[in-house]
From TrEMBL:
PANTHER family: HTH-TYPE TRANSCRIPTIONAL REGULATOR RUTR. InterPro entries: Homeodomain-like_sf (IPR009057), HTH-type_TetR-like_transc_reg (IPR050109), HTH_TetR (IPR001647), MT1864/Rv1816-like_C (IPR025996), Tet_transcr_reg_TetR-rel_C_sf (IPR036271). The keyword Transcription regulation applies. This is TetR family transcriptional regulator. Pfam families: TetR_C_33, TetR_N. Residues 40-59 bind DNA. Residues 17-77 form the HTH tetR-type domain.
Amino acid sequence: MPSDMSLEQTPAERRRSKVRGAIIDAAERVFASEGENGLSIRRLAEEIDYSPSAIYKYFGSKEELIDELKEAFFKRLLSRVDMISGTDRPFHLRARACVSTYIETAVERPHHYAAAFSNAYGSNTGNVWPDMDWETFMQTNKGRAFGLLVDMVREGQSLGVFDPSLDPYLSAKSVWAASHGLAQLMTHLPQFPDLRPTNTCLSASEFVAFHADLVFRGLQHPAVLPHTDPTAQD
């Protein structure tokens, strides 16, 4: 079923969107098989039987195309998280689902996920992260996704579920780092969730749910331990 946006587009706009989508899909395929170094406008032209000049009408450079790949991944993630956020499910289920959705979206299309974080250090910056101010970052899909994570922490704090002393931004960064690490492990080592010294099998989805639950509990109020006197005798 066509979306409201597709119905509002003119035939020329729909064709342009279709071609852009085909180019991005082809870029993901080339990235998957040949890596970032193998991705070029000429190589894409061969992949989808277009002329390089035709592709340049949509993307001015390889760098612009890679930026689009990055934005496209987080756009897909945002649409999924938006659906979760818009439900009437209890907060603890929505919060866990947000964490799980990030990992599942990454594992579903691992090469696109790899492209979303490719070339993290600009070619002319050595080992220095490229400058990007907060406002610029938050205007990207990646920034918007991070903003939703911050909002989740704040909502949990307002509901009395999460520890109010936690900094929402540091907490969101920590949750992102933990989830990114698991996503990387599962895309590079698919058997990782089942690595354990027993014969009990654990599916990938079960391990992701375990991870999401552990992250959620880590943000909750710390357990209050009974006071103990270190000088007391057993």
